[in-house]
Write a structure and sequence with these properties.
The structure holds 2 protein chains of 2 kinds.
Chain A (H helix, E strand, L loop, with lengths): L4 E3 L2 E4 L5 E6 L6 E7 L6 E7 L14 E5 L5 E5 L8 E8 L9 E2 L3 E5 L1
Chain B lengths: L3 E4 L2 E5 L4 E7 L7 E6 L6 E6 L5 E4 L2 E6 L4 E6 L8 E5 L13 E6 L1
Parallel strand pairs in B: 2-10
Antiparallel strand pairs in B: 1-3, 3-8, 4-5, 4-9, 6-7, 7-8, 9-10
């Protein structure tokens, strides 16, 4: 079946503008994660959704970042008043089980460039 | 939140050689130990994983060795090929937000 889909694949925006990134997880996957990956760096955890539970927002770097998920489907990551340091690849992943013991399936990411 | 230490940061191996990447962790609640492989422009993909009730798991040219007492696990790539050139991440799982190692950039040269 289809994998995790992210859109857009590339986004260039001006400093100060808001952006919205979309993630379509694999159908039936209850868990959804957002990560940020700066050039040549590792994965920085941002937020985790599990079913109808309150999301784990402990990785969000500032109040300019927010994310929503509708049920067990699409998620959107919103960055308000973008800054140049927000430039990175934003990766979404989903997994099939309600525990942490399940491999993650990643999308190919959205490459965000803030000019 | 330095719960996972991965080494080396980069590795150059001759074609046909053995690549070894290590991951040390602190949290004893971790109970699933995967390695992910990432090619440029792609998201990471699960390569191989091990549970703590075994000390070694082999899948083709890829082997995970797990040392519970030392809180370390490693990835061994036998007969390394240029197509193995990628970035590798360890990401032990447990009752905490998922933490990835900082990655190892592997280059296999002919």
């Amino acid at each position: 079946g289809a994998g995790v889909s992210q859109s857009p694949s590339n986004k260039v925006t001006e400093k100060g503008k808001d952006v919205e990134l979309r993630c379509d997880p694999i159908s039936g996957h209850t868990a959804l994660y957002w990560y940020r990956q700066r050039l040549g760096q590792g994965l920085e955890f941002l937020i985790y959704f599990q079913g109808n539970s309150a999301p784990d927002k402990s990785g969000l770097p500032s109040d300019r970042f927010s994310a929503e998920r509708t049920g067990e489907s699409v998620s959107t990551l919103t960055i308000q008043r973008t800054q140049q340091e927000d430039s990175a690849v934003y990766l979404c992943a989903s997994s099939s089980r309600s525990t942490y013991n399940s491999p993650l399936h990643f999308g190919n990411g959205t490459r965000l460039t803030v000019t | 939140q330095q719960q996972v230490k991965q080494s080396p940061q980069s590795l150059i191996v001759q074609k046909g050689g053995i690549s070894i990447i290590n991951c040390a962790y602190e949290n004893t609640a971790f109970d699933y130990f995967p390695w992910y492989q990432q090619f440029p422009g792609k998201g990471p993909a699960l390569l191989i994983a091990i549970r703590p009730d075994v000390s070694e798991k082999k899948e083709g040219r890829f082997t995970i060795s797990f040392n519970k007492s030392a809180k370390q696990f490693s990835l061994h790539i036998m007969d390394s090929q240029p197509g193995d050139s990628a970035t590798y991440f360890c990401a032990p799982l447990g009752n905490t937000p998922l933490v990835f190692g900082k990655g190892t950039r592997l280059s296999v040269i002919a």
